[in-house]
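#dry-run=false #mode=assembly
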Amino acid sequence: MTMLTRNLVSASVPSIRVFSSAATRFLKTGDILKRARIFTSEDVLDYSKVSHDSNPLHFNSEAAQNAGFEDRVVHGMLVAALFPKIISSHFPGAIYVSQSLHFRSPVYIGEEIFGEVQAFNIRQQKNRYLAKFKTACFKDGCVVIDGEAMAVLPTLSVED
Amino acid sequence: MTMLTRNLVSASVPSIRVFSSAATRFLKTGDILKRARIFTSEDVLDYSKVSHDSNPLHFNSEAAQNAGFEDRVVHGMLVAALFPKIISSHFPGAIYVSQSLHFRSPVYIGEEIFGEVQAFNIRQQKNRYLAKFKTACFKDGCVVIDGEAMAVLPTLSVED
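#status=ok
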């Protein structure tokens, strides 16, 4: 995708047409990439099947309440999967190098969760880029998961 | 589960029967809990669906080879899910507090991966326990992912 902005003005053509497309955006320090998601009961079941993680906190409301939660909780690692999802959807081919995760608050089924990754360090490595991101998930403005991620990006051009 | 080891020897019964069950094991510093798993092509597809992560590195051999891999790779976060799976299967009701992850080497479909968590710090908090674990996944004896996890355990009694 290259920047294409043309203004054609000519008295010899019957109509004036302006061609424009979104400018290519390049990742720079401070940029924030976001994605919202609501996790369903089916998501919890599907994740449990593929991860083989059947902790009763995710399936049994009573067990979850006995542990101090309001209700059964979404797997933390499923919510945290928002981070590589955000990075790889904007940078297909990105290679995940590291991720730290602090699970601060429970995520319940049906809650809208906002995932964010913010680039805070970018450096070129040969023909690729090593980018560090602050990563956080929020609900109602409060942090539910935070940490940092590092990824190798094939390009700094951001796909939308 | 309580320790139950009975040796019944009596001349009045026709046969001698020995009842025994595994002794209750309590987690202590240094203990290692393990689980092996081979990730299939279906696992990668199922994980992609539930995580919404469709990075071409996981589906397109050519894209993966262009990025320097031998073939398409299993999602790192799916492999890392071994850690909470190991903890929660031995301690149902465990609450995940934190996890750090360094993705050292790629995991390919069909490879046998050995996940391990080793307790290195355990302290009581009221009627629960806060445990820190070194976490690692290996293939052919080499580390593919390592890091640390922290979890709140409802008991130190290890379920098998």
